[in-house]
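Renewal narrative, Specific Aim 1. Our central claim is that a sequence can be written position by position from structural information alone. The example that follows is taken directly from our test logs and has not been curated for this report. It begins with the structure tokens describing the chain, in the order in which they were read.
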């Protein structure tokens, strides 16, 4: 289980309010702040009750608008409000919009945060709402809990005196504070716990993005790009930053404070890697500033000029270099576990640095997003020279690891290369082109050795866009260097006692389920004469809409997730090698003899669908997200295959 840090905060209102409103005095004027960049805090008491249509709660013309409205229960775009619905299926929401202005992006104006009211423990009744605009963050707190935030670019334009008002039927009092109050974190009486496998951060619109991992002094670290709105924050620039989890036993996990929080309006962070240099735990990452500013306004021209002139990169200090910071940088842990501090140094102009220590002890980096190749240096702060131009090609974050007699580089969503460890970098071969990759539905995975000869892979499963749920695998290596994958036993979800569905299945057989998360297990006996195939269709209550089939073809040694049919096997899907996706895999291992299959089926309201995770013969995994699917029926279909010991066990704590 993962112990989560608290989301509870307190706002010390010892400083006098700039202006106060009540239901009896619902209007007043506000004097413009001396420094608009210092932000503002609005605190009000909301008396929630049933309403129809829209209600404006608090208004500051050209600055702020707060309201209630009824949201379309089918519309998950941007905010994913239908993650929490009222008992009658409606989705009333509380929203706050700040109006921003900037010279760089005149069209970046309305920035809205909000929550579905069903997210609250007791929607009706009184609630304390705090809206805090700090400049770098735009945040909504309800009853002391942080429930939504955004990352602004620009500031409101205040008039010399600005009127403001409230709706006295729903808001009993309101106060505005200038400048913004800095919130103080509270200690939770009882820490919240959550299963780490298939986890996503608390909140209706929060997800796990690109994952980067390492193992240091007996502790496994998972850094992930925290995402809200499927890359839609900061007007579509993402506004990501590295959050941090760790464990020493893989059973008890700890959530730490963010390793690289966003502290400036120009910041949005790209993928990097954790590494240990001079016995210090560091995490490299990219500043994706060119999403916000044109390149000539950033530090990149100076960085590239120095690199092209000298043949190696220089160190550029954020405080003294002209232009908006961009490119590669890093943070350092103060205690070797967490408590990271940004170095403020830009050491290379690539914007997704993958820094690592190679097996010979050399400090290396694979350059991604804006550059490419393998680079070496004697120090992190500059001095990087290219030792392998053009390989690996720049793009999504690459991750190097050595396992026994082989080196591997995995890259983003679809790339994997391997070579014998003793061979030069020019010997890397494309494993995906051979159909021997180990992609299984995870996006931008990272691989780390955890001691005892064990290797783990961690990544995210996309849920309706960029970002989704965290999934961790254990990897297997075969003598020829090929890698397989299996479920990590330490984080397997707990189950109740299994029920036997059937002793044997050799023809089309349906079974109902109760729609709750479950573990399905069965044994597979291939026909002696000619290997056949089988499929399990995961069906909704009626029809085949959104239905999914897990199909395994023993004659071709292939498996896939595909749209299910009620009358026949699903059509064949293309693998990565064939130009398709990781929902279809080739060259299954040990399926020419009896083997077992395990499948976890887990749906919930937040993801608005179902995750289906399969392990085939204990040596190959596959995971898929199926939107709008709530599994209520199973349909087994076989051809030249016998399935036996078919069991289903409900998952606990889900």
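The sequence written for that structure reads:
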């Amino acid at each position: 289980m993962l112990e989560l840090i608290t989301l509870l905060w307190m706002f010390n209102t010892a400083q006098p309010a700039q202006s106060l409103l009540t239901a009896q005095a619902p209007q007043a004027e506000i004097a413009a702040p001396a420094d608009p960049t210092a932000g503002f805090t609005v605190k009000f008491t909301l008396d929630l009750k049933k309403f129809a249509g829209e209600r404006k709660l608090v208004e500051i013309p050209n600055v702020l608008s707060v309201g209630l409205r009824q949201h379309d229960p089918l519309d998950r775009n941007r905010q994913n409000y239908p993650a929490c619905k009222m008992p009658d299926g409606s989705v009333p929401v509380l929203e706050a919009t700040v109006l921003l202005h900037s010279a760089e992006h005149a069209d970046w104006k309305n920035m809205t945060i909000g929550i579905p009211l069903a997210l609250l423990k007791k929607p009706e009744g009184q609630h304390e709402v705090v809206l805090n605009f700090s400049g770098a963050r735009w945040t909504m707190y309800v009853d002391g809990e942080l429930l939504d935030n955004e990352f602004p670019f620009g500031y409101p334009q205040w008039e010399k005196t600005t009127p403001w008002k409230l709706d006295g039927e729903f808001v009993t009092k309101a106060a505005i504070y200038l400048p913004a109050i800095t919130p103080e974190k509270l200690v939770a009486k009882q820490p919240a716990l959550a299963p780490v496998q298939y986890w996503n951060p608390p909140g209706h619109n929060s997800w796990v993005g690109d994952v980067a991992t390492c193992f240091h002094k007996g502790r496994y670290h998972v850094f992930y790009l925290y995402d809200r709105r499927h890359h839609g924050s900061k007007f579509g620039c993402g506004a990501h930053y590295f959050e941090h989890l760790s464990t020493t036993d893989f059973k008890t996990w700890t959530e730490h404070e963010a390793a690289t929080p966003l502290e400036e309006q120009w910041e949005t962070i790209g993928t990097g890697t954790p590494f240990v240099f001079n016995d210090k735990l560091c995490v490299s990452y990219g500043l994706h500033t060119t999403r916000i500013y044109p390149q000539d306004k950033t530090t990149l021209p100076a960085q590239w000029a120095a690199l092209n002139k000298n043949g190696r990169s220089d160190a550029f200090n954020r405080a003294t270099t002209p232009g908006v910071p961009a490119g590669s940088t890093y943070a350092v842990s103060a205690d070797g576990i967490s408590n990271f501090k940004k170095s403020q140094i830009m050491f290379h102009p690539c914007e997704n640095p993958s820094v690592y220590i190679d097996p010979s002890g050399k400090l290396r980096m694979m350059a991604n997003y804006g550059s490419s190749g393998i680079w070496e240096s004697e120090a992190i702060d500059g001095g990087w020279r290219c030792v392998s131009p053009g390989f690996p090609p720049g793009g999504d974050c690459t991750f190097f690891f050595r396992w026994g007699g082989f080196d591997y580089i995995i890259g983003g969503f679809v790339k994997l290369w391997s070579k014998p460890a003793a061979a030069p970098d020019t010997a890397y071969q494309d494993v995906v082109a051979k159909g021997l990759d180990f992609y299984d539905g995870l996006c931008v995975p990272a691989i780390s050795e955890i001691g005892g000869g064990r290797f783990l892979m961690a990544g995210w499963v996309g849920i309706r866009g960029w970002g989704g749920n965290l999934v961790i695998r254990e990897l297997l290596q075969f003598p020829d260097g090929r890698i397989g994958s299996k479920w990590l036993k330490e984080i397997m979800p707990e189950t109740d006692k299994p029920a036997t569905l059937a002793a044997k299945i050799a023809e089309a057989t349906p079974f109902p389920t109760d729609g709750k998360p479950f573990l399905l297990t069965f044994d597979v006996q291939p026909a002696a004469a000619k290997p056949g195939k089988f499929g399990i269709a995961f069906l909704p209550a009626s029809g085949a809409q959104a239905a999914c089939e897990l199909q395994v073809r023993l004659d071709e040694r292939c498996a896939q997730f595909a749209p299910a049919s009620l009358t026949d096997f699903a059509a064949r899907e293309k693998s990565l090698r064939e130009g398709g996706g990781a929902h279809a895999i080739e060259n299954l291992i040990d399926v020419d003899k009896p083997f077992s299959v395990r499948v976890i089926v887990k749906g919930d309201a937040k993801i608005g669908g179902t995750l289906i995770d399969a392990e085939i013969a204990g040596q190959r995994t596959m995971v898929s997200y199926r939107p709008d699917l709530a599994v209520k029926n199973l349909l087994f279909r076989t051809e030249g295959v016998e399935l036996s010991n078919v069991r289903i066990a409900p998952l606990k704590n889900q």
